[in-house]
């Protein structure tokens, strides 16, 4: 349910640009540029609950990002969480690394490696 009186500290807008400006042109306006975008929009409830939306736009198709591209972003996000985020905590970092490596193993079709990682994940979940 929407609260029309709620005040938000951030707003966003995704602008398709058929004129395809250069990066220097958009930077002059203080903007960024890309071929496709996937945004995580997060609303924090007063009770501590979070609400998420994932708007996306693929500049090549003018439609939403494909499920395959969203999946690739998720894999890269898992790697980012495992390697670049310093305050995540060791348990979550390890889980993110396991997820990333499991997907890598599945993609490169290494069943023995995938089996080892799956067992490690099952053991971690049993703790």
List keywords for this structure.
about 130 residues, about 45% helix, mainly alpha, single chain
Give the biggest beta sheet: 2 strands, antiparallel
Task: Report how far apart the termini are.
Answer: 37 Å
> Helix count, per DSSP?
4
Tell me, what's the shape? extended
- How much of the residues is beta strand, in percent? 5-15%
Helix content range:
40-55%
Radius of gyration: 19 Å
How many separate structural domains?
2
- Count every beta strand, where a strand is a DSSP E run of 2 or more residues: 4
Uncertain stretches of 5 or more adjacent residues? none
Quick rundown:
The protein is mainly alpha-helical and 127 residues long. The chain is built from four helices and four strands, in the order αββββααα. The longest helix is centred in the C-terminal third of the chain and has 18 residues, at 90-107.
């Amino acid at each position: 349910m929407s609260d029309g009186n709620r005040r938000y500290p951030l707003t966003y807008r995704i602008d398709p640009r058929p004129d395809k400006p250069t990066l220097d042109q958009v930077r002059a306006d203080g903007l960024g540029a890309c071929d496709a975008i996937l945004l995580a929009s997060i609303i924090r409830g007063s009770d501590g609950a979070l609400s998420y939306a994932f708007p996306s736009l693929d500049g090549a198709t003018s439609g939403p990002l494909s499920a395959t591209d969203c999946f690739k972003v998720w894999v890269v996000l898992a790697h980012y969480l495992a390697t670049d985020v310093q305050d995540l905590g060791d348990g979550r970092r390890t889980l993110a690394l396991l997820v990333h490596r499991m997907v890598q193993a599945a993609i490169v079709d290494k069943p023995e490696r995938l089996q080892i990682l799956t067992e490690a994940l099952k053991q971690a979940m049993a703790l």
